[in-house]
Specification:
about 500 residues, alpha/beta, Adenylosuccinate Synthetase, subunit A, domain 2, Adenylosuccinate Synthetase, Chain A, domain 3, 3 domains, nine-stranded mixed sheet, five-stranded mixed sheet, 18 strands, about 20% strand, disordered N terminus, disordered C terminus
């Protein structure tokens, strides 16, 4: 490149490879600083995201709809049209950041934009979502109870009024649409009473009463304050916003194992959770794109569904301080590193270039650790070969790899999930690294960490380089082992 020429535009896509809670927020914050990005693009999910970030001066925030790079001065957020948007919860989050003295909070003109085509999540979606989960009883799917799934599926299926961000700027038409939406959500909630058990009917009555007592005109008046803050400049297609920012970090929500097209159905979300949405937005941008898959150094999951390596004893030693039990998604669950599930997340996305490993400090000093390289199937007969690579030896059935299915049906995904429920992990034991201040002691000499990283990088495990290891919540708690993106990777911004 000749002197004076600008570097080519670039983007780093951040993808969770587990069940969510992998550490995407701290990874985005670190990558924004390292690559000197000035825009975070949110490309999937919605207000149910909970991305914890700790700033260099110790301020904490759990980012929901704002980009997790917002602690860095002059870094903005763009919400893509593939993201569900809750105006009221966004407005509350913005106020919290403004009151905390964050200099680039979204009330700063020009720093926050949302695509006019984004589906709006209303309180009516949230109330119906919670009524549906209540009706399911013990069969809950583990929803966050924020109404995102209801809003997204209604927008896809048709037959229900859909509110999009562009509609917020037309008050009269908005009130008519919201009035109909409220009545239809109320009707669906009332129908759940006939399906639910006697025990659930009193609980359902609470949500039905709330729907009846929240008139559309009250919601529309509440939205007026949000529209005033957004203004005309705050409603902009993500593609237009991208054109003004040469270096972008694209922030995903949830994790690949929750993907609607390949996750552990029915314990998944009704939207893509791989980097597919971001790649579609960037396809014609001419950018140098790199995708970073995020994994903890151990396994986690909120709520119901398979977690093959779950270990209650480990949870007692690795408390989930940043992930409290939620009334809808349930408690945080913990297990040892699951290489089978992690490899499936890598292959399901199909474009992972490197791995960001997080929360290595949480298991430091535990002495011995475990990593699951295969499962033993202990259930009745089933179509195992359709879903797994299978080894049969000495009467044992070993599952060494989850297959990525071509255009799977929901029935097929559900059948695979049922088979996973009859699996037990087969572990390799390994030494864990000691507790230490990794910012002061560059841990290249810690052979246990080197061995763990080398194992993950093997072609038969993850087959991708580990470019960073996180030893705490701050960006400065990151050991960089590789380029970690196509931007100005050699320059770190504190």
């Amino acid at each position: 490149m000749s002197r004076g020429m600008s570097p080519p535009p670039s983007a780093v896509i951040v993808v969770g490879l587990g069940h969510g809670d992998e550490g995407k927020g701290r990874t985005v914050d670190a990558l924004v600083r390292k690559n000197r990005a000035d825009l975070v693009l949110r490309y999937n999910g919605g207000p149910q995201a909970a991305h914890h970030v700790v700033s260099p001066d110790g301020r904490r925030h759990c980012f929901s709809q704002l980009g997790a790079g917002s602690f860095v001065e002059a870094v903005g957020t763009a919400i893509a049209g593939t993201v569900a948007f809750d105006p009221l919860s966004w407005h509350l989050e913005a106020r919290v950041l403004a009151e905390a003295g964050v200099p680039t909070h979204p009330f700063t003109p020009g720093l926050f934009t949302v695509d006019p085509g984004s589906v709006v999540v209303t309180p009516y979606h949230r109330l119906l979502n919670r009524a549906m989960e209540t009706q399911r009883g013990a069969g809950r799917h583990g929803s966050c109870g924020m109404g995102v799934g209801v809003a997204v599926l209604d927008a896809e299926r048709g037959g229900m009024p859909v509110v999009r961000v562009a509609d917020l700027f037309v008050p009269d038409a908005l009130e008519q649409r919201v009035s109909l939406l409220r009545l239809m959500c109320l009707d669906r909630a009332e129908q759940l009473v006939d399906l639910g058990s006697c025990e659930s009917r009193d609980a359902l009555a609470v949500f039905i009463a709330a729907l009846r007592n929240y008139p559309a005109e009250l919601y529309v008046r509440s939205i007026a304050a949000v529209v005033e803050v957004l203004g005309e400049t705050g409603c902009e297609p993500a593609s237009a916003r991208l054109e003004r920012h040469p270096i972008v970090v694209c922030e995903g929500a949830q994790g690949a194992l929750l993907d609607r097209y390949g996750g552990y159905f029915p314990y998944c979300t009704p939207s893509p959770t791989t980097g597919a949405n971001a790649r579609a937005l960037l396809a014609d941008s001419g950018r140098n794109v790199r995708t970073v898959g995020v994994l903890r150094a151990y396994s986690t999951r909120h709520g119901a569904g398979p977690l093959t390596t779950e270990c209650p004893a480990l949870l007692r030693r690795v408390p989930a301080d940043d992930n409290p039990t939620g009334p809808w998604q349930g408690a945080m669950r913990v297990g040892w590193f699951d290489a089978v599930a992690a490899r499936y997340g890598v292959e399901l996305d199909g474009h992972i270039d490197e791995i960001a490993l997080t929360s290595a400090d949480r298991i430091a000093g535990l002495g011995k650790g475990r990593i699951a390289r295969a499962y033993e199937y202990r259930g009745p007969g089933g179509e195992l070969d359709a879903f797994f690579e299978v080894e049969r030896s000495g009467g044992r059935i070993l599952l060494t790899r989850l297959k990525v299915l071509d255009e799977p049906t929901l029935q097929a995904l559900a059948a695979r999930t049922k088979l996973l429920g009859a699996c037990e992990p087969i572990y390799d034991e390994l030494d864990l690294w000691p507790k230490s201040d990794w910012r002061l002691e560059r841990p290249r000499g810690h052979r246990a960490l080197d061995a763990f990283v080398e194992l993950l990088q093997r072609p038969d495990v993850l087959g991708r380089p580990v470019s960073s290891v996180g030893f705490g919540p701050r960006a400065a708690d990151t050991l960089w082992l590789g380029d970690a993106g196509p931007g100005r990777a050699s320059v770190t911004r504190g």
